[in-house]
Amino acid sequence: MVKLSVIVPFYNVQAYAPDTLASLRANAREDFEFLLVDDCSTDGTPEILERAERELPGAVLIRHERNGGLATARNTGLDAASGAYITFLDGDDWLAPGHYERLLAAAEELGVDFVRTDHVQCTARERKVFRVPVGRRNEVLRPRDAILPADRSTSVDYPMAWAGIYRRELLDRGLLHFTDGLRTAEDRPWIWRLHRGAESFAAVGLLGIFYRRGVASSLTQIGDVRQLDFIRAFDQVLEETANDPESGRLLPKAVRTYCAVISHHLGSIERFEPSVARKLRSMSADALHRMPQDILKDALDGMDGERSSRLRRLRRRATGTPAVSGAAGAA
């Protein structure tokens, strides 16, 4: 019986894949499987993965015939997973030896639906620890309660799928798949759905995941139109949260987070191609108009002056697109 399925998408990461695969070898166990999803790479990555399938214990190579993006590649891995627990790793990141065994032990001991863990961000030679924004560690908690408060960083603001481990029952209940085709912010609707739908979770302080930041091929470093998928991702968060029985309690957090992300992108708009920058302004203005306006007003009133002013100026550009159905009334 497979105890843990690790889903690892790869796309044009030939410079980093050997480190990732070596760290998986240092985490191998006879009841672990590593689902290596090649998302139609065009460099030397496929050959590296072919060798890994032969040499890495538990490795299973899955190939896409066309590039689908990270969300689609993760879904391919989920569809093939057979483990009692599931986790993720990106093809340019790496792990400390034995990390998965320790993470699995924590999940089994706590007996929760999922566990979230800290990680180390690596930018060139710099190392920086990022913590799950949950104060109580190694305790069984209610995921919905960790969404709030609206005006502070919470668990849904730490959306990285690879920073945790998840019971298979969550997959069977439809809580682990990603929105197919999202090219960026794919973790945002996912983490919100997970916290609304799961019954229990815990945060632990294991530091065994090393996230490689600043990779030139990473979409977060590319200012093309795919970056604008964050609009579609957060529209989904708002729509699904508006349909939640506790929408009045949860929507202020969703709106405030959406506003913060829009402001972040506008604040670094120079990194986008000119046509994409224009589209970013237009789509963001429309997004502000779609939000429940009473909740939006409260969110803007509670933000710092710079971000609030930026969004208020943008709001005046908004067209007549209707607000999220039923959201304002629910609030």
UniProtKB/TrEMBL annotation:
The organism's superkingdom is given as Bacteria
Any keyword Electron transport?
no
Q: Name one GO molecular function term.
A: hexosyltransferase activity
Q: Does the keyword Transport apply?
A: no
Q: Which InterPro entries match?
A: Glyco_trans_2-like, Nucleotide-diphossugar_trans
Q: Glycosyltransferase 2-like domain location, by residue?
A: 5-171
What are the record keywords, sorted? Transferase
Q: What is this protein called?
A: Glycosyltransferase family 2 protein
The record lists the organism as Streptomyces marianii
